[in-house]
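Progress report, Aim 2. The chain analyzed during this reporting quarter is listed below.
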Amino acid sequence: MSYETSYHLVEKIPAMVSSIVKSTSDLTRIDRAHFRNYSESALQFEVVYYVLTLDFNRYMDIQQEINLAILREFRRLGVDFAFPTRPLYLAQQTFGEKRNLA
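Predicted structure tokens for the chain:
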């Protein structure tokens, strides 16, 4: 999540994601959802949930449903995902200036 995300939205994310996981299927169990840390270019969350099935295709269907619901809710709220960025500072130099390199 980008650093531009408001405090109020950041505060709501763990409960929102927990609610999505709980409501997606009777085969899901939420363990935890937290605002975990400040990374180099993003606010990071950790979400742990269990899908209680041995059927891999069903597991993938549920995981996709959760991911799409999170994306839909983020889009609705105007939450942006972060991407790696680096500030670049350029020094201004006037061309035609002679520099003394000695």
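The CA atoms of residues 52 and 89 lie 51 Å apart. DSSP finds two helices and two strands in the chain. These observations will guide the mutagenesis work planned for the next reporting period.
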